[in-house]
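Progress report, Aim 2. The chain analyzed during this reporting quarter is listed below.
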Amino acid sequence: MYAVLGGALPLAGEADSARIALLGHSRAGSSNLIFAGEHDNVSGVVVWNGGATPSAQVSGQPRPIAEDIELHAERFHIPTRLGSLKIPVLAVQGAADAERVLESFRLLQEAAPEQTYVSIPGADHFFGIVHPYQGTTPYLEEAFEATAGFLTQHLLKKEA
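Predicted structure tokens for the chain:
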């Protein structure tokens, strides 16, 4: 975001700094909700299969990160963060994801029912994509379509 605002990216002059949206998958989606709550220049957020509140007890979590999560639990409580946002948010969730991720999705819906939620039946955490990438899937295409429609509705039609 700072590279766009500072003109450091190629074609930065073509970017409309009044319409910056963040898109993140999994933990990056949660991180983007935190970031958006702390930065006024964000106009919208899209979260793909994310929204879980980070846990200091996650196995292998580096000690400084675990301590930060423990000391600033309110900052990292994702449903509360989402509920406080005054910008549009889209959460896209694969309905065949892990139960703990599906529970996080339900908590987001409870915390901010006014936001936009899309559940994709049959889609897993990666929308059926494999590594190395071998092409798109109907699930990923549905996530793309939901995202493009959301961004068009909330950002492209927004008066700059």
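The CA atoms of residues 121 and 160 lie 36 Å apart. The mean pLDDT is 92. These observations will guide the mutagenesis work planned for the next reporting period.
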